[in-house]
Amino acid sequence: MAGISQSILSDYESISKNEAFCALTNAMPDMVLLTNSQRKVVYVNKTVKEISGFESTTGFLDRHPGEIISCINQISLFDVCGFHQNCSGCELNCQLINRFHENAPQMHESKIISLVDGVEKQFDFLITTTPTQIDGKEYLIILIKDISAQKRKQALERIFFHDIINLAGSLNGIIKLVTSQQSKEIFDKYLPASLRLSGELMDEINSQRDISLAEVGELAIKNEWVNSIQVISHVEEMLTYYKESKDKQIRIDEQFEDVEFISDKRILERILLNMGKNALESSITGEYILLECKKENGTVTFSVYNSKPIEPEIQSRVFHRSFSTKGTNRGLGTYSMKLLGEGFLGGKVWFKSHPQEGTRFFLSLPA
């Protein structure tokens, strides 16, 4: 137990002797942590030990809660839980700071990105905090319930009930109009729109299917030789079918490089299509988006540019499941880029945004 303060050890020993408290918390299927007034962990239940995999039975002592759940914002030696620039928006951190001044239990949802076996994984937690006293000392009980599956289901249902039903309704309206008029002029006028809507509808359904399979690790990958120009040409064509492209330009960079490499073409096009849609949604009439590709240092890097910067206060949430350029509780585009690009294609997905330079989303793959 070298390195652990005597005060922490004393707290741990005192709490461990409280058989009723230990039996109760160890019977809970959710994670239970106990922190002192310095936000240091002095006790965890059996569930935390099993999930966290500490080598010693006291490996959790004298740590911050973010370390226990492997939050990506404190994985380096220079970032401490609660002091990273992203911690100000963390509900768990806010509870740790404020809860000792209140008596009643509080319940809040919090989104945490953890590093699991070297891979970033997003969790939705329901966190309940309750101040308590044990042997005359004040502690904070933190109950952490994983509600990720429930939130995934809600997000997918929202998209189906909103976007897909809207698309199906529009398509149905056009079909009714064409069949009621029985006019070749009307048919010719609305055929392109019906094709566009049916294409969007199928794309939305396939997108949600891919995300659902990817989140449970069941998305099948079919690697093959692909050509960067062929891929981007198909993506450009698909983007022109979306209503967001109206009165906007979709350009391919003059220096776009012709690269042959192995990947899953369908998943690759899905990611680039989401990047393009995201850029179009962020653009206004008369603007353009730019599709780019470069090969360097054994990698091929695709990027999509648009002129609108992302506000600094929301940049840390861009790849969260709940983030969307469409508005509250809409879309899974940016989330799926990272999920599919890093989790299944073995690449790297990131973005750069600057008020004077606009925004670029990148996808880098082995080549």
Brief characterization of the structure:
The protein is about 40% helix and about 25% strand. With about 375 residues, the chain is α+β, with helices and mostly antiparallel strands.
Which terms summarize this structure?
alpha+beta; Heat Shock Protein 90; Beta-Lactamase; 367 residues
**Which CATH C-level class of the largest domain is it?**
Alpha Beta
Query: Which blocks of ≥5 consecutive residues have pLDDT under 50?
Result: none
Task: Write the CATH fold name of the largest domain.
Answer: Heat Shock Protein 90
Shape: elongated
Task: Characterise the protein shown here.
- The chain has helices at residues 6-16, 19-26, 46-52, 65-68, 91-98, 148-181, 184-215, 228-239, 265-282, 333-343; strands spanning 31-35, 41-44, 106-116, 119-134, 137-146, 224-227, 249-252, 260-263, 288-296, 299-306, 348-354, 358-366.
- It has 367 residues and is of the alpha+beta class.
- The protein has three domains: 6-146, PAS domain (Beta-Lactamase, 2-Layer Sandwich); 149-220; 223-367, 2-Layer Sandwich (Heat Shock Protein 90), CATH 3.30.565.
- The strands form three sheets. Strands 2-1-5-4-3 form a five-stranded antiparallel β-sheet, sandwiched between helices.
- It is elongated.
